[in-house]
Task: inverse folding
């Protein structure tokens, strides 16, 4: 669906509204995938979907209707959208009043983002199979057993409303993830890469890295669970910091005393130096490596913005309602996350460590205490003991209790940045993050998981 088609379809649907405030959000997606296990493809598919969410306001009463839309046929799409408009209006008439009601946004300006690659968005089943075959051949050569998932998609996202707002974004993304196991299931490794251009993904290399970690992690030794100096590979940084920190950056949580960024007397820690001065965390939808959608669900623009600069908390994210209550502008919002690194190779971080743990991946991360930004989870797919600047042997996995807030105060060195995929939220947003060497990481118990 082109931008012109999206504009025409939503304009025609909005004309059918009988209430003054209606918003239409449309997602059009071409999604191809192939799943593989035991060094063989197992499932392949292609889905073409069009989904619309229509919200109508009758005074301060609000309701939404969601449904499939035939975007390949504009006439059908208009008819189906008008039906959703009518349904949303009927539901709004009986809905309770929204205590946080705000008028619709008017027209906005959005940053230009080049996030679409036709070769990625329109891959054929044969092309997907060829890429996965490269990874499987690499696994066979290295005598490991692999399973994983490769998917690629092209998406068109549209937000339009009766106040004149129209936002449109076209993007593509390809993501490959591989878990490698030794044949006896006593060693495991993982690797994942995501890119808006499939041509930039080296499928053999992805499998090779996962295989190397699987072989190296075989028969991990058990050590006492406690705090250890640690090096977190970019994947582990993504799993913990990327998975959790964006949700902690909410201004309302901080204002209401429910966040690690809360301060006494209803204040926040905005403007304070709270992290290591080398920490720079920001969002940029036009980032060359991880371009992303430049507006939120309501069509509010997303621009490049610092959340942390030189360790200072520069911004928290304000919803439109909370911004109005606090007499300030909404946002900033994020659709990707970038953290600056120092360019130091992982091998040098290891060489500079006297004793400690190398963490390659974290998993099953869940909140423990929001006021401390404390989370628990498990190490997975490769954990190693470092001594005298060298990896000495693999370790048995740990459960941990740790806070991304605390870790960003514990930095000793930063490494090279990589585009990484957080295992549990990889479809939410993409990230470029560095490896981190930290003074301590809290390991709380051992785990029998491999």
Result:
């Amino acid at each position: 669906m082109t931008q012109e088609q999206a504009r025409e379809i939503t304009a025609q649907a909005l004309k059918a509204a009988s209430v003054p405030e209606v918003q239409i959000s449309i997602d059009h997606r071409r999604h191809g995938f192939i799943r593989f296990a035991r060094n063989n493809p197992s499932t392949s598919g292609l889905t073409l979907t069009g989904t619309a969410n229509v919200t109508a306001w009758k005074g301060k009463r609000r309701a939404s209707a969601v449904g499939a839309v035939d975007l390949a046929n504009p006439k059908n799409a208009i008819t189906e959208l008008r039906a959703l408009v009518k349904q949303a209006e009927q539901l709004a008439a009986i809905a309770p009043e929204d205590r946080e009601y705000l008028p619709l946004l008017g027209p906005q300006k959005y940053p230009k983002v080049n996030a679409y690659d036709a070769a990625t968005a329109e891959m054929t089943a044969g092309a997907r199979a060829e890429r996965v075959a490269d990874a499987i051949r690499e696994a066979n050569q290295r005598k490991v057993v692999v399973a994983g998932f490769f998917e690629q998609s092209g998406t068109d996202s549209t937000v339009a409303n009766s106040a004149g707002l129209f936002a449109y974004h076209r993007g593509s993304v390809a993501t490959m993830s591989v878990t490698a196991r030794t044949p006896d299931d006593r060693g495991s490794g993982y690797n994942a890469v995501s890119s808006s251009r499939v041509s930039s993904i080296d499928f053999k290399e992805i499998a090779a890295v996962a295989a190397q970690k699987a072989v190296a992690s075989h028969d991990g030794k058990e050590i006492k669970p406690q705090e250890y100096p640690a090096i977190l590979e970019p994947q582990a940084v993504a799993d913990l910091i990327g998975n959790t920190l964006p949700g902690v950056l909410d201004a309302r949580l901080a204002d209401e005393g429910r966040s690690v960024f809360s301060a006494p007397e209803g204040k926040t820690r905005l403007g304070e130096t709270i992290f290591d001065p080398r920490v720079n965390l920001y969002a940029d939808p036009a980032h060359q490596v991880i371009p992303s959608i430049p507006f939120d669900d309501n069509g509010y623009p997303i621009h490049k913005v610092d959340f942390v600069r030189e360790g200072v908390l520069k911004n928290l994210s304000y919803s439109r309602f909370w911004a109005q209550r606090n007499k300030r502008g909404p946002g900033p919002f994020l659709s990707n996350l970038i953290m600056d690194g120092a360019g130091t190779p992982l091998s040098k971080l290891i060489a500079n460590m006297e004793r400690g743990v190398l963490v390659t991946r974290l998993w099953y991360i869940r909140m423990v205490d929001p006021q401390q930004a404390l989370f628990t989870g498990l190490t997975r797919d490769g954990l190693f003991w470092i001594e005298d600047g060298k990896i000495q042997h693999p370790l048995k996995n740990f459960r941990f209790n740790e806070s991304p807030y605390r870790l960003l105060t514990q930095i000793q060195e930063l490494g090279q940045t990589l585009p990484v995929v957080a295992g549990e939220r990889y479809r939410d947003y993409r990230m470029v993050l560095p490896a981190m060497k930290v003074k301590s990481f809290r390991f709380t118990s051992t785990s029998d998981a491999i």
The longest strand covers residues 40-58. DSSP finds ten helices and 21 strands in the chain. The radius of gyration is 24 Å.
